[in-house]
Amino acid sequence: ERERERETVVHMATLTTIPAARVVSSSSSAVASSRRRVVGGRKCCSLFTSSKKPISLRGSHSFSTTTKTTLITTMSLRRAFARKTTTMMKTTTTTSCFFSRTLTTRGASSSSNSSSSLIFNRQKGLKKLKAAAAAVGEEVNAAEQSVPLLTSDESEDLLKIRHSTAHILAMATQKVYPKAQCTIGPWIDRGFYYDFFYPDQSFTDQDLKTIQKEMYKIIRKDYPIRREEVSREEAARRIKEINEPYKLEILDMIKTEPITIYHIGDEWWDLCAGPHVESTGKIEQKGIKLESVAGAYWRGDETKPMLQRIYGTAWESQAQLQAYELFKEEAKRRDHRTVGKEMGLFSLQQEEAGGGLVFWHPKGALMRHQIETFWKDLHLQRGYDLVSTPHVAKSELWKTSGHSDFYSENMYQQMQVEEESYQLKPMNCPFHIVVYKDGYYSYRDLPLRWAELGTVYRYERSGTMHGLFRVRGFTQDDAHVFCLPDQITDEITKILDLVEEVLGTFGFKDYEVNLSTRPEKAVGSDDIWERAELALKDSLKRKNWDYIVDDGGGAFYGPKIDIKILDAIGRKWQCSTIQLDFNLPDRFDLSYIDQNNEKQRPIMIHRAIFGSLERFFGILTENYAGAFPVWIAPVQVRLLPVTDTVDDYIQRVANEMRAKGIRVEVKSGERMKKLVRNAEKEKIPIMCIIGKEEAENETLAVRTYKSGDIGTFSLTDVISKVVEATEEKSEHASF
Fold first, then answer.
1. In the chain, which end has fewer C-beta atoms inside a 10 angstrom radius, N or C?
2. CA-to-CA distance for 128 and 283, rounded, in angstroms?
């Protein structure tokens, strides 16, 4: 019962880093050339990179695809072998240098060709692993096994493998189901998919097995994969000949010449720009797997036909596939929808209330209260003022802001109130501007920093919603800073400091930072853009942070900084955004009076740290797998009486703890073993077992979720340690 999920020592890829926040850039050949690496600080520990890679491909790759690179940091894989086995990681070298997170304050070697990766290693704890594996019929190799799990962005070879496997999937599907029509089939992060129009039947798990067997046959025949260039007319003729209407639509979307086709032997072909492996035999058949089937509208349009999307994954070896399966198992165990339901934190009641609407249950609402209180108190300490704005506004406001023109598809329909049109707000920005316009400001009054936990409403298609990560009503931790042009650098630096403090308090200290610059179409003068971009760079330089420049990736109304965090199993999440805006101040004719008594436009900075409370709560839940830091845990202490004769002492303990602000509850009525087991399942940070001896001596037998039984302490000591952990925002109480 003492066995816990043990957070694994992390071994990270190194490149160039910074002292406080650990950020990375990459020179991977797969990263789009428009993204430049900028090194700002001392060498330390770099983590991971991401690229929004615009894919201008033909055939199966006609759409923009986002590819990401991720490095696993802490991960427990014991459940894949046995309940009480922890899979450990070991330092290794792939294309870069890996080392323990505990050494990140020391110097580390760097490599210009480094790319971060998710690593699975099973050397440490091998005896336990063998025993556990034997119990569940698994084989464990006694030799060192370091398995890098690279994304398609990190590995050109894996990208080709996944792309070619998508084609093999389509060929195999049409061999088994000749009436199935092909649409698109791109590679993705760690796999691929292909969409088929096949209304005759829905693909089942058994169908996937049949298709996969056919894929094995194609791989074993080692067909050459050949590229051919043809004219647009010839491509259209061939497509019509094989009756593939969706390919005709794709052909119409291709604006470049010549048209390229990839053949698998003389058996099958597809519109495609590549790249691919030389032959099907280059694919390791034990490294591929078809995973699932999902519905997808053609071109993401609900008015168009529903397609069947087959997802798969592909790797260079069976070992990589097995490691990936373990990673997926761990991610499934941490799924915030499952954990949230088990712990009674929240629910999304599709049938009763509608999709994408979050209902916070008592424990979840209590956690949210802790998070919001921390956020508000910290902002007040950092010079912000809190504002609160309505949930609806006249439609004219959204026309002035431009949302009606550029964001209408994400907004709910207008409602009529006394012959005037109103709409639910999709963003808080115009409301803060309305507050600004209600005042009269001199240059001496700036900067103004206004923050709000404002709930917004955005239309999301039912097929795109996902737990807390994508909902229709959510609360943004919005703030807007109105400042002078020469205050931008100072204000951005202060925001970065605040971001670092907030995210660090919740245990997120590894980031990727992206700086997006002026696109081709933009509002604002060249001078203000140049000053703004320089201010953002200077702020990052002050922080001594590395960052990736996304040339031309900014919004039309201003440059921005995006910060992505790394969770416990190596996934990357977009959270914080800092965005300069030259557009809304013009649209709303904002002004301040300068030193010469003339009106000038203020600079407006949009800023969010969590992004949204709902999404951040989901990330937090999966990062800790429900074993939350003691300071935000819904129940910090559970009292477990051994006998009814100690009830008076139990109540006194509970009352004294509540008086100190400790969230405590009492559970009894079961055998002690079951009471402890239930507390473990609910991930209660601290359990206090109380029998006659503890009552007589006014002590508590303490057991923690982290360490199990840790001994007997006085009531005063326990209270002081829990209060200290809460005040210091600690993950664990220091017993």
1. N
2. 34
- Measured distance CA(437)–CA(588) in Å, rounded: 8
CB 509 within 8 A of CB 22: yes
Whether 617 and 368 have beta carbons less than 8 Å apart is answered as yes
User: Which candidate in 560, 667, 703, 706 is catalytic?
Assistant: 560
Catalytic residue among 480, 537, 564, 638: 480
Give the number of other CB atoms < 10 A from CB of residue 520.
6
The one-letter code for the residue type at 524 is G
What digits encode the pLDDT tens for the residues 446-472?
A: 999 999 999 999 998 877 889 999 999
Partners of 579 in beta bridges: 560, 606
The strand order across the sheet containing 385-386 reads 35-38, 547-550, 511-516, 560-566, 572-581, 603-608, 473-483, 448-457, 385-386
Reported pTM: 0.77
Element (DSSP H or E) covering residue 548: strand 547-550
Q: Choose the catalytic residue: 195, 477, 478, 546.
A: 478
The active-site residue, picked from 4, 11, 333, 458, is 458
pLDDT digits (tens, 9 = 90+) for 252-269: 999 888 999 999 999 999
The whole-angstrom separation of Cα 468 and Cα 485 is: 37
Query: Is 606 among the catalytic positions?
Result: yes
For the question of residue 480 being annotated catalytic, the response is: yes
Contacts of residue 406, defined as CB under 8 A and 6 or more positions apart, other chains included, come to none
Annotation says 688 is catalytic: no
- 476 in active site: yes
Task: Give strand pairing partners of 702.
Answer: 688, 711
Burial of residue 645, with CB atoms counted within 10 A of its CB: 0-12 exposed, 13-18 middle, 19 or more buried: exposed
User: What residues does 608 pair with on adjacent strands?
Assistant: 478, 577
Position 352 scores a pLDDT of 84
Can you give 144-175 as a three-state secondary structure string?
CCEEEECCCCCCHHHHHHHHHHHHHHHHHHHH
Cα(first)–Cα(last) distance of the chain, in Å? Answer: 19
Query: Residues in the chain, how many?
Result: 735
Q: Do 441 and 448 form a contact (C-beta atoms < 8 A)?
A: yes
**Catalytic residue of the set 606, 663, 667, 706:** 606
Q: Choosing from 181, 308, 476, 636, which is the catalytic residue?
A: 476
Handedness of CA 294, 298, 299, 303 (dihedral sign): negative
Dihedral angle sign, alpha carbons of residues 364, 337, 74, 128: positive
Residue of 45, 429, 483, 688 marked active site: 429
DSSP state of 714: E
The residue-averaged pLDDT of 437-443 equals: 95
**Calpha distance 251→243 (Å, rounded):** 14
732 is catalytic: no
What average pLDDT score do residues 3-30 get?
Answer: 29
pLDDT in tens, 191-201: 999 999 999 89
